[in-house]
Amino acid sequence: MDPMENSWELSKENVQPLRQGRKIANLTAALQPVNGQEGGLTRVQQEKQAFEAELRMYSGDDPFSVWDRYIKWTEQNFPKGGKDGSLSTLLERCLLFFKDDKRYSNDHRYLQAWIKFAGMTNQPVDIYNFLHDQAIGAQVSLFWEAWAWELEQEGDTKKADAVYMEGIQKQAQPVELLVRKQKEFQARVARATLEGGVPQQSAGMSGTEAQRVTLGGLRGQGKKHQAPVSRTGASTKVYSTGLGVKPCAPPQVGQAFSVFSEDNPQDQVIPAPTGEWTNPPLPRVTSRENTHKPGKWTEAKIEG
Amino acid sequence: MAGVLQAAKNSITLKGSAEIVSEFFSYGINSILYQRGIYPPETFSRVQKYGLTLLVTTDNELKTYLNNVLMQLKDWLLDKTVEKLVVVVTSIDTQEVLERWQFDIECDKTMTEDSKPREKPLKEINDEIKAVIRQITASVTFLPLLEENCSFDLLIYTDKDLQVPETWEESGPHFIAKSEEVRLRSFSTSIHKVDAMVCYKNAD
């Protein structure tokens, strides 16, 4: 068998799976060791330059199409993900470029790029909040679905459900997809509450019984009121002092019940778009820290 | 004595070959169903086979279905009338074919039940099978995510003039319109040769 054909199998750990799958030809080519061509550029570098040039020269009426191809090309040709192909930088450039372009605010491809970008950040929900505020993707069911999915992952099932409702109400296209995804979501939540409810209780019970209490009172045994050997259950004093140590409650998966409150109607779960939030919460901005540029120590002066 | 045993281990009859091949399909199909998440992972249990840890379904209905198919397949392997086995993965909602695992089977037509056994060490065959199953597992590297609920179907291609059994029906090939194809490894018992391949929807 041709060794070229199966090189993907040898480096399978170095390949990040893609949602839409990979093209095997690109994958095999990307995994080949780079032949050091003297002075010349590798195939990947050449193609990258061609894309950059096309971005500058493009004069048609769908400038996003070039970006779209460029992004997909990067994904396919840098299988390792991460900083290798600097995909996140590319996405950021592209997303900011078209942020205020109304032509693309409900474009399927543009939304997909946002979703990819959100998936690469630590706070994907922030990105969706921003998009919602800017009314980007309000007509595309893909956006609502991705947003609800992230909320579900964070355990905020109530808000996730509200997001589905909002999307359906706005008649995002195709609306059937949203209806279907909402049903699947509700089935998942129902299942999680059913499955999570029963064992949670029994685990909690045995947990408190078996554990010794920190700084808890003990009942003395015998005439001399000696401390008992077994220090759980009946031998502890019932009264509780200070802060009781309770086993940490496992994160709630589904809401057992919701408290009705008059001044908390549905539309406050998801605030209406204001359009005031103009800068997207990019990770390089939101997680910025004070850093000093490295410099010569000998030249440092005390200020003041 | 040892010499006789050795000879028995390395020789393979048509019946034994059919056994090995259908056993491979049993594990292979189970692996696909597990890897691609077509059945929930908690309905699988671990078994050791071919020096690998494989997952096999514990769902009774699915087990019966697979057993029936594999029994029939074994008969056809003995008759040497089977050409292909295809596992088709379809989206339940849209009925669209998303993935197609094709196993081409070549039978040595000169072999009969009474003919002299062929020589091929069992270990060698098992190693080849192991490599195929490993590739099935590794294929997550390039396969697209199956984001919707999927079902699967087994298609078996046989010689044209074969009588269709009652429990079987004729079906179309379930091709994928714009697909990417990846050839996987193959294995051979020296009587049956199995070539594996997977097709999936193109990225764009």
Helices and strands, with pairings:
The complex is a heterodimer of chains A (304) and B (204).
Chain A lengths: L6 H4 L13 H8 L11 H15 L6 H14 L9 H11 L10 H13 L3 H10 L7 H13 L3 H13 L5 H36 L55 H4 L13 H4 L18
Chain B lengths: L1 H9 E2 L1 H22 L8 E6 L2 E6 L2 H20 L2 E10 L5 E11 L10 E2 L2 H17 L11 E9 L20 E10 L3 E10 L3
Antiparallel strand pairs in B: 1-6, 2-3, 4-5, 4-7, 5-9, 8-9
Helix pairs in contact in B: 2-3, 2-4
Shape of chain B: globular
Shape of chain A: extended
Q: What does the radius of gyration of chain B come to?
A: 18 Å
* Second CATH tier, the architecture of the domain at 125-293 in chain A: Alpha Horseshoe
Q: Write down the secondary-structure element order of chain A.
A: HHHHHHHHHHHH
- CATH topology annotation of the domain at 125-293 in chain A: Serine Threonine Protein Phosphatase 5, Tetratricopeptide repeat
For this structure, the CATH topology of chain B is Cell Cycle, Spindle Assembly Checkpoint Protein, Chain A
Protein name (chain B): Mitotic spindle assembly checkpoint protein MAD2A
Keywords (chain B): Cell cycle, Cell division, Mitosis, Nucleus
Main location (chain B): nucleus
Domain HORMA (chain B): 15-198
Short note summarizing the structure:
By secondary structure, chain A is mostly helical.
Defining traits:
heterodimer, A: 304 residues, mainly alpha, Serine Threonine Protein Phosphatase 5, Tetratricopeptide repeat, 12 helices, 48% helix, B: 204 residues, Cell Cycle, Spindle Assembly Checkpoint Protein, Chain A, five-stranded antiparallel sheet, 4 helices, 33% helix, Mitotic spindle assembly checkpoint protein MAD2A (chain B), cell division (chain B), Mad2-like (chain B), HORMA_dom (chain B), cell cycle (chain B)
